[in-house]
TrEMBL record:
Pfam families: Pkinase. Keywords: ATP-binding, Kinase, Nucleotide-binding, Serine/threonine-protein kinase, Transferase. InterPro entries: Kinase-like_dom_sf, Prot_kinase_dom, Ser/Thr_kinase_AS, TPR-like_helical_dom_sf. This is non-specific serine/threonine protein kinase. Residues 11-274 form the Protein kinase domain. It is an enzyme of class 2 (transferase). PROSITE patterns: PROTEIN_KINASE_DOM (PS50011), PROTEIN_KINASE_ST (PS00108). The lineage of its organism: Bacteria, Bacillati, Actinomycetota, Actinomycetes, Streptosporangiales. It comes from the Bacteria. One of its GO terms (molecular function) is ATP binding. Signal peptide: none annotated. Its EC number is 2.7.11.1. It comes from Actinomadura viridis. CDD domains: STKc_PknB_like.
Length: 515
């Protein structure tokens, strides 16, 4: 990329901000609306198909996350550079501020009130994101920016891969993921992140803001990861006796090894940290503002944290409101439902999952009224809806959608139908995604019992065993998880050799010296 390059006849590159192995970030100007923007590139030839696919999907997810604490996403496009080849680019709001790593370098430690204020604002963003659930997965001082007015912006929601080669690691699931050793929750190393993983990372950041040092300093990334997995962090009060005991306890709880031992959600962290937000003094060279009264600071952080309370936080699928009388409802024919499903499939195949989900959701109730709950098209529509919700990352809505689909399919085709078993498997997968690992394991073990009559090396059985093993690694029984995965790898190799799709991920996971 070069200065002066114009994308889409609109976005003019001005100054490089960051470069990495497979991507770079530029400051740019919007010629149409006369404003500064940021443009993030990812190089197609160097990134790989999985990274490209995830970049597209998570760019769409970031665009969904409308929040004052997150830079607005404006555009997503493609560009071919004569030197570096094809690339994707994401256009976002340009944020003028200081990242927290630079803030720590400048000030060493921050006053308790500022550290608490920053933490509360980040919790406000996470509270909204986790409702989807959209996880950041790479919270660290370099991805958090303090602006001149004291507000905090959370950068790079899930789209940091490619900008720092050392921060990207192939997880146990076989997918590249952004990981920064000093801020990564233990369960993320096994490819099973959950909303509480972000709370762990935020705990690392808060610890550093208060102490001026990382939770577990180490000479190498692997040593740092080992310490995060195995060692108990030093109390902040041992380093700085003036730190309030309740704040120290909160940070240590955020740094618990098991997700279940951390605070329940970002709302809880915000409520507990707000009590430490008192009068804020200016931070010279960083935030030169008139110190707001404590009440204003609390209100600002509190508003950010309470944004979800004004929206729909239910995990139930959205049902469109129906007209007052059935005569006003346009009841679709079976052919029209089939056409709608085909249109939704086309949308999903091009990555437009939100549109696909809305189309199917709007059609679901009228189709049910028209054709009945045992009609094949209605049953297929329900399964399609659950699938696109899952693909779009809306796991909370996908959970009840899969359950409804499973019930209908079981009544029509029997409980052993492959589609019923698929719904049960995906329900558990979605539960794990939203942090309910033990409930997911319970459902998967029940599923494994119910399909015990199948061949022992059936693909479904092998997948379910893999899910269970990985979940036990991060749900309090790592030895049992490792044994399950070791047995699974041996069984797969005895039948399929090393050609089975699960083998590379299992080998890498079991060879991890820190497991």
């Amino acid at each position: 990329m070069r200065r002066g390059l114009v994308l889409a006849d609109r976005y003019e590159l001005d100054q490089p901000l960051r470069r990495g192995g497979t991507g770079e970030v530029w400051r740019a100007y919007d010629r149409l609306l006369d404003r500064r923007l940021a443009v993030r590139f990812i190089l197609v030839d160097e990134a790989g198909s999985e990274l490209i696919s995830r970049f597209r999907q998570e760019a769409r997810s970031a665009a969904w996350l409308e929040h004052p604490g997150v830079p607005t996403v404006h555009d997503l496009g493609e560009h071919h550079d004569e030197v570096r080849g094809p690339s994707l680019y994401l256009v976002t709001q340009y944020i003028d501020g200081l990242t927290l790593d630079h803030l720590i370098d400048a000030h060493g430690t921050l006053p308790v009130s500022w550290a608490a204020f920053i933490t509360a604002q980040v919790c406000g963003v996470l509270s909204v994101a986790h409702q989807r659930p959209l996880m950041h997965r790479d919270l660290k001082p370099g991805n958090l920016m303090l602006c001149g007015d004291g507000s905090v912006k959370v950068l790079d929601f899930g789209i940091t891969a490619g900008l720092a080669p050392g921060d990207v690691r192939r997880t146990a699931t076989g997918q590249d993921a952004p990981l920064t050793p000093g801020y990564t929750a233990p369960e993320q190393l096994y490819g099973t992140p959950c909303p509480q993983s972000d709370l762990y990372s935020l705990g690392c950041v808060t610890y550093e803001l208060l102490s001026g040092q990382e939770v577990f300093p180490a000479a190498t990334p692997y040593e740092m990861m080992r310490r995060h997995e195995d060692e108990v962090p030093m109390s902040l009060r041992e380093l700085l006796p003036d730190i309030p005991a309740a704040l120290d306890a909160l940070v240590l709880q955020m740094l618990a090894k098991r997700p279940a031992d951390r605070p329940a959600d970002a709302d809880e962290v915000c409520e507990r940290v707000l009590r430490f937000v008192t009068d804020l003094e200016p931070l010279p060279g960083s935030v030169d503002i008139v110190p707001p009264p404590a009440r204003s600071a609390r209100l600002y952080a509190g508003v950010l944290a309470r944004i979800p309370a004004t929206g729909n936080t239910s995990i139930s699928p959205e049902v469109p409101s129906l007209p007052a009388t059935l005569e006003e409802v346009k009841l679709p024919s079976q052919e029209e439902v089939a056409q709608g499903r085909a249109e939704a499939a086309d949308l999903a195949s091009s990555g437009r999952f939100t549109q696909a989900a809305e189309l199917l959701s709007d059609m679901a109730e009228p189709a049910l009224l028209s054709l009945g709950d045992d009609d094949l098209e209605v049953l297929g529509l329900r399964l399609d809806l659950a699938s696109v919700l899952h693909q779009s990352g809306e796991h909370r809505r996908a959970i009840p959608a899969y359950r409804v689909a499973a019930v209908g399919l079981a009544e029509r085709h029997g409980p052993d139908d492959d589609r019923v078993l698929h719904c049960r498997e995906q329900t558990a997968v979605c539960l794990a995604q939203v942090g309910h690992a033990h409930e997911a394991i319970r459902l998967l073990e029940k599923l494994l019992t119910d399909v015990s009559g199948r061949e022992p090396y059936d693909d479904l059985i092998l997948r379910v065993r893999g899910h269970i093993g990985r979940l036990w690694l991060t749900a309090g029984r790592p030895a049992e998880g490792r044994q399950e995965l070791s047995d699974l790898l041996a069984d797969i190799r005895s039948v399929h050799g090393d050609d089975h799709a699960q083998v590379p991920g299992l080998v890498q996971l079991l060879d991890d010296p820190h497991l």
